[in-house]
Amino acid sequence: MFGGPLNILFIPSPFIENADCESWAVTSLPVVFVSGEQSGGGKRGMGYLWRVRLSSFASGAAAASGAGFFLLYKDHLLARATIARQVEEIKETSEKHYEALNKRISALESRKEPGAIKEASD
Fold it and tell me: Which residues form a coiled coil (predicted)?
């Protein structure tokens, strides 16, 4: 908005009753110099500007990393739930296949002669 640092101005306050020369109000308004000169040398303002930019960058990076962590965490929970559901489905189908195979094996063993089973197990 304004180029240069913010300067503090001391102006007399018209809102204080019995205002004399010793009652002053402090305000921080930007001062625009028509001649292009700044009070305080101007070099102090650049350090302040870099600190403001650096703190703004740091707060933006912290907010972005927090939002990114939240999104990755939610994505992780969704993927974990999906994988767990798929594993449960595979487990159920494999248990069904296992039971079916056990029934078939039991049926085949019951048809065979008892002597043939003993020979195979020796």
Answer: 84-111
User: For the chain, what is the domain count?
Assistant: 1
* pLDDT above 70 coverage of the chain, percent: 55
Q: Is residue 107 part of a domain?
A: yes
Would you say residue 116 lies in a domain? Answer: yes
For residue 65, the enclosing domain spans: 40-121
Using pLDDT thresholds of 50, 70 and 90, give the confidence band for residue 81. Answer: very high
Would you say residue 37 has pLDDT above 60?
Answer: no
Q: If DSSP states are collapsed to H, E and C, what string results for the chain?
A: CCCCCCEEEEEECCCCCCCCCCCEEEEEECCCCCCCCCCCCCHHHHHHHHHHHHHHHHHHHHHHHHHHHHHHHHHHHHHHHHHHHHHHHHHHHHHHHHHHHHHHHHHHHHHCCHHHHHHHHC
